[in-house]
User: What shape does this take?
Amino acid sequence: MPLPQEMLEELGRKRREESLLANRDRTRDLVLSALLCWFWALAGLACIAWSLHTTVLWLGKTAFWGGVAIGNSGILFTLLGTYRRGERRGDW
Assistant: This one.
């Protein structure tokens, strides 16, 4: 027995609203993740730039490799967290 037309329209309206909310959540998460990736990249570059201006050799090397580690690991963990949250939401 087919469902009444009013019930089908109500279900369709409800699914559209849920779809809009899901798309909004996914977009917000991706934008925030992109901004966080930029933050980590700039933080790493700031440490590397500081290492170029210091006159103490061991401090320069520490700042350089720390900047490389901060930039790469920050971006990597941000992307892994984004993927994990997308999996939980069912985005992919």
